[in-house]
């Protein structure tokens, strides 16, 4: 099975010194890079490498939020901006995914989900928005290994209400972290959905291979979220001779020049004086 996506030779390293889980939004000629800490960096230069200004805190912190303000994603939906993100709840003692809303990509984002949407007894992180072929919204998210008896995480999905305030279906398991033969950990991080020009539904996600944090591709055999998810043998990103650092938790976006880029943080932990920073790989469909 072909991977469906491949990196070209074009690689851009951002001037942002330290930001995990970078999610890029392009709106009215401006780049926004959101990341862990519920912050964003803004870039009006048109240059993905330099000109980033920030960080700016952009979320009204929920009353029961304690810590773990992880991996914010911002999606434009029905003309408004919605943030999907994670926090650790003081009430439940678990991490979970919530949704916040704002008028502009700069926020402030205010929670509309009344707390975690994901099951209160689970540890859940990295929620993302998926719109199916009928135009219906879903949340795809990580059921984290930390709340699994065998310490193997899964990827899960549930249908959202049209106003994105609550689930209207029970979560469905899509696949386990140990599904691919290369997997060396029980991690299912950083899910992001992408439909190819020929209709294939792909998911990029992160786990660990023999060389560190990496980016994998899974594909639905039906072209929809409730299909059987097959793991591609070829990784989209893994540390190697021409890639001195590991990296992952990525997403795809269209730059102002019309080209598609994969955004991720690399390395996954500080290496000497280098921190986790956003990097961008030009990406094409295969």
Supply the key terms.
286 residues, 4-stranded antiparallel sheet, 0% helix, mainly beta, Tachylectin-2, Chain A
3D architecture notes:
With 286 residues, the chain is mainly beta. It has one domain: Tachylectin-2, Chain A (5 Propeller), CATH 2.115.10. It is 0% helix and 49% strand. The protein is built from no helices and 20 strands. The strands form 5 sheets. Strands 1-20-19-18 form a 4-stranded antiparallel sheet, with no helix packed on it. β8 and β9 (110-111) form a beta hairpin. It is globular, with a radius of gyration of 18 Å. The model has no long low-confidence stretch (mean pLDDT 97).
Distance between the termini: 11 Å
E-strand count: 20
Order of helices and strands: EEEEEEEEEEEEEEEEEEEE
Structural class: mainly beta
CATH fold description:
Tachylectin-2, Chain A
Low-confidence stretches: none
CATH superfamily label: Glycosyl hydrolase domain, family 43
- CATH C-level label: Mainly Beta
Number of helices: 0
How would you summarize this macromolecular structure in one to three sentences?
By secondary structure, this protein is mainly beta. Helix content is 0%, strand content 49%.
Strand-helix topology:
Elements lengths: L4 E9 L9 E5 L2 E6 L3 E5 L9 E5 L7 E13 L2 E10 L5 E8 L7 E2 L12 E8 L5 E7 L10 E6 L12 E5 L12 E7 L5 E9 L2 E9 L8 E3 L16 E7 L5 E7 L10 E9 L1
Antiparallel strand pairs: 1-20, 2-3, 3-4, 4-5, 6-7, 7-8, 8-9, 10-11, 11-12, 12-13, 14-15, 15-16, 16-17, 18-19, 19-20
């Amino acid at each position: 099975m072909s991977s469906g996506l491949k990196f070209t030779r074009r690689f851009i390293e951002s001037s942002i010194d330290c930001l995990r889980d970078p999610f890029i939004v392009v709106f009215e000629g401006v780049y926004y890079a959101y990341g862990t800490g519920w912050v964003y960096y803004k870039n009006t230069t048109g240059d993905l490498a330099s000109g980033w200004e920030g960080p700016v805190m952009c979320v009204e912190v929920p009353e029961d939020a304690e810590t773990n303000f992880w991996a914010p994603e911002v999606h434009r939906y029905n003309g408004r901006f919605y943030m999907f993100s994670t926090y650790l709840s003081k009430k439940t003692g678990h991490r979970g995914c919530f949704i916040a809303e704002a008028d502009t990509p700069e926020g402030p984002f205010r929670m509309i989900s009344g707390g975690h949407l994901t099951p209160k007894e689970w540890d859940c992180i990295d929620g993302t928005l998926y719109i199916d072929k009928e135009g219906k919204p879903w949340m795809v998210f990580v059921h984290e290994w930390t709340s699994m008896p065998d310490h193997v995480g899964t990827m899960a999905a549930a249908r959202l209400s049209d106003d994105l305030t609550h689930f209207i279906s029970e979560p469905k398991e899509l696949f386990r972290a140990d599904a691919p033969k290369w997997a060396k950990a029980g991690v299912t991080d950083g899910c992001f959905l992408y439909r190819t020009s020929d209709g294939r539904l792909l998911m990029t996600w992160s786990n660990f291979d023999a060389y560190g944090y990496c980016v994998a591709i899974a594909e639905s055999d039906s072209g929809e979220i409730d299909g059987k998810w097959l793991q591609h043998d070829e990784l989209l990103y893994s540390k190697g001779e021409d890639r001195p650092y590991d990296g992952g938790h990525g997403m795809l976006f269209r730059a102002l020049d019309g080209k598609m880029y994969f955004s991720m943080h690399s390395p996954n932990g500080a290496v000497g004086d280098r921190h986790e920073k956003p990097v961008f790989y030009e990406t094409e469909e295969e």
